[in-house]
Amino acid sequence: MRTLADGGVEVVFANAGTTEMHMVGAMDAVPNLRGVLTLFEGVATGAADGYARIAGKPAATMLHLGPGFAYGLTNLHNSRRANSPVVSIVGDHPTYHNVYDSPLTSDIAALGGWLRGSVRRPENAAGTGTDAAATLAAAVEPPGQVATVIVPADASWNDGGVVGTPAAGKPPQPVTQDVIARIADVLRSGEPTALIIGGPAVREAGLCAASRIGAATGARVLQELYSNRLEHGADLPTFPRLSFFPDQTIKQLAGVKHVITAGAKEPVAFFAYPDVPSCLVPEGAQSHALAETGQDAAAALVQLADLLAPDTSADVDTPQRPTMPSGPLTLKSWTEVVGALLPERAIIIDETVSSGTALPAATAGAPRHDVLMQCGGAMGDGLPLAVGAAVAAPDRPVVALVADGCAMYTLTALWTQAREQLNITNVILNNHAYGILRAEWGYFTRSPGPGDPNANPLFDLAHPTIDYVKLAQGFGIPASLATTAEELAEQFSRAIAEPGPHLIQAVIPTVT
Questions:
Q1: For domain 177-308, which CATH number applies: 3.40.50.2300, 3.40.50.1220, 3.20.20.300, 3.90.1150.10?
Q2: Dihedral of the CA atoms 83, 84, 87, 88 (nearest 10)?
Q3: Domain ranges of the chain
Q4: Which of 102, 113, 279, 418 is buried most, with the most CB atoms less than 10 Å from its CB?
Q5: 464 preceded by cis ω (within 30°)?
Q6: What is the largest CA-CA distance in the chain?
Q7: Is the pTM of this model over 0.85?
Q8: What residues are paired with 403 via a beta bridge?
Q9: Which tens digits make up the pLDDT trace of 462-492?
């Protein structure tokens, strides 16, 4: 614990058990480490993800043996896809105990390997500090990873521990001038080109540079589907996101002869569909990487813009709010309410899935804000991300926009929000359905089709109806129900103005 604190770790999101008792005591003895209790490991891991994205440094998680680690794996998967630095501490039985195959014995290292990050296991007290330092160094290695340290209980309770010395963090690798010159030649060719940006390239420097490049060369600038931290709002450029559905992405890229990526990966289909290609780069087009994951994509874009567009300014959105809508909430009007009332320096958590397609346009002219998205596609990251973001930036308002199906995965995050009195306005978008699955249904139908997706009970969340207002109140959070734009506006304004967490259940139509 002292090693992690010396290395800059300030927060441990924990759901500890018997094997972690000595680590809990050790954490309590280190004054500059803050323990944040969660009731479910998936909340702890998602919160560490949100914290890392906003703080720009890792938090730690403390999980109980293999089953606790397994509960947290879903949001650690999302963390891995977001390239978030996370130190995952997993307790284990004493080294001599596992041979007896007691009920909670499992292969913890195999679970850690699934995350494709560093996995270490000190076998005695003397190795705990060294392995903690190495785990922290691995977590912050660009572009960031989930690094796991498995701590046997006897390595915790025995004497002989030595504080380790964390290695200094490494900066992202620069892109070579040869690569920048080669990409410049592609853009000068005059052939139709798409520039896809992501990762660190979707913050101010990268966004403005990409806008300049697009204006000077005619390149079609697109943003990756899910970004770990997007800077958005007035005085910044806005670009279309690649679509979730492959047929729409194919249309976005139609006719291009070159696809250039900067901080993003080559576009691929989120899911495989019959008779649809997995790689969405148009047939015959060439792919070029300006900056790979882990390289300084923003700096590379700035250098490229200075080379190709030295006298070109970025095209930015002017400060502008949507007109406040009225009447029953629709898929468009709820986003207009948020855009009209979004406070300064907000952090938006976007786990809206099928209900939020109008959100980027509605908030483009709002005061500048950050947007955190669920990067790995595993549902249930939104409420935990909000916890971590609010812990990392207690002076900033956090607005968690979460689909009803996603919210139920990690609803206990509300308890941590209430316990820590975090400034989070939760808007649960309740369409009483897994709307995204109803939309997906059409991609797999064959004449005469398998039936009506609106009648399929496996997509229905209305029987019984879930009352998020009562659930939130049960966790100690003020909550209200909005069915009209007027109600949402009044409740959203009040929630933003009052300290502590709030929840609004916004009833909206489903996507079909």
A1: 3.40.50.1220
A2: -80
A3: 2-157, 177-308, 333-507
A4: 418
A5: yes
A6: 71
A7: yes
A8: 429
A9: 889 999 999 999 999 999 999 999 999 999 9
- Bridge partners (DSSP) of residue 193 are 258
- Please compute Rg for the chain using Cα positions: 24
Task: Describe the crossing of helices 413-420 and 41-55 by its angle, rounded to 10 degrees.
Answer: 60
CATH 1.10.443.10 fits 2-157, yes or no: no
pLDDT tens per residue across span 238-259: 999 999 999 999 999 999 999 9
pLDDT at 436: 82
Calculate the CA dihedral of residues 290, 291, 292, 298 and round it to 10 degrees: -150
Residue 237 has pLDDT above 90, yes or no: yes
Non-local (6+) Cβ contacts of 311 within 8 A are: none
Summarised one tens digit per residue, pLDDT across range 261-296 is 999 999 999 999 888 999 999 999 999 999 999 999
Peptide bond before residue 453 is cis, with ω within 30 degrees of 0 = no
pLDDT of 449 higher than 70: no
Residue 480: strand pairing partners? 504
| Rounded Cα–Cα distance for residues 487 and 59 (Å) | 37
CA separation for the pair 97, 197 (Å, rounded): 50
- Evaluate whether 2-157 and 333-507 have a shared fold: yes
| Nearest residue to 43 (alpha-carbon basis) of 500, 381, 408, 428 | 381
Question: Regarding beta strands 230-232 and 59-64, do their DSSP bridges make them parallel or antiparallel, or are they unpaired?
Answer: unpaired
Closest CA to 370 of 236, 229, 464, 502: 229
